[in-house]
Amino acid sequence: MKTGILLSYKGLGSNLLHLSYCHQIAKKYGPITIITLCKNLDQALSDDPLIKEIVYIKKYHKKLIDVFKLGKFLRNLNLDNIFIFYPSIRYFFSSKIAGIKNIKSYSILKKKNLHLVNAAKKFTEACLNIQNCPTETSLYIDPIKKIDLSNRIDKNKKNIILGVGSSGPTTRWGSKNFISLIKRLNKKKNDYFFYLLCGPNEKEIADLILKEVGNEYCLSLSNKSISEIVPLISICDMYIGNDSFGHHVASQSLLPSFIIMLDTPKAYTDYSKNQYRILPDNIDENHISHDTKISANDITVDIVLNKIQNFI
Asked: Cβ–Cβ contacts within 10 Å for residue 202, how many?
């Protein structure tokens, strides 16, 4: 019996947010096939024994006629069960066309104001007939990879992932603030090393920080692949930074993860006990959305230092 899970999200972080529910379904049905719009999810989850394969959908999900094309695509996967973590009538009918016997999907009437965590939790509980489905899980990394990396980093220092990149400019705290944070921390105690997490197209952010702070204190990860970055995050001590896939990896690797909330909806930081939100003093976390666009200057370095002081 072959079971698929369809995650209709392009962002790596949004996909990783659903990992606990994938694991719960896999524990009942065996290793699963994840079908996703995220092109690099396979690199993040390549070691996971509960995931049989990850299939990337580059097309077949935008137009009405794509229902039939996606149906043909899904038929070739030979699925017996599919769990669709999105309210989409197109995905439902594509699964019907594919001849999948057991189809479970979000209600198409609940697309507005969809809370990713609450919706996924309730859906999984209903599908598996369970109660209190966990919202977080442990990200599995090959132990050999972790040992190898641990031998290559300086364990005498506190190794911190700084999420300096993000999905867009409105979610970035800015290089100047990160430079100030690094200098303030090193002024107190010079035993920190910072890994600058950002994508290849954000290299200039890391370069600005490196130029100001120095290579002896920082390393840019802009030229690293996801498959290289994920194990590294898992062996560090903590995450501080913008809303990016890094905080999902860190929190599900049991690391304290401090997320600077600029226009990140609460749901993205609402599922792990290891997640800690950093907000301006006068902002209610329940009122933040993708349209809030909080100014980076409203979250001072002092606010960040006060938040992390018990962990640093």
From this structure: 19
Helices (H), the chain: 12-16, 19-29, 41-44, 66-75, 89-97, 116-128, 143-150, 175-188, 203-213, 226-235, 245-251, 301-308
Query: What is the pTM assigned to this prediction?
Result: 0.93
Sheet holding 275-278, edge to edge: 218-220, 192-197, 158-163, 238-241, 257-260, 275-278
Residue type, position 69, single letter:
K
* CB 131 within 8 Å of CB 125: yes
Residue 40 sits at φ, ψ, to 5 deg, of -120, 15
Q: What is the mean pLDDT of each run of 10 residues along the chain (312 residues)?
A: 96 96 98 97 98 92 84 97 95 96 90 87 98 96 95 93 87 93 87 95 95 94 96 97 96 97 85 94 72 82 95 88
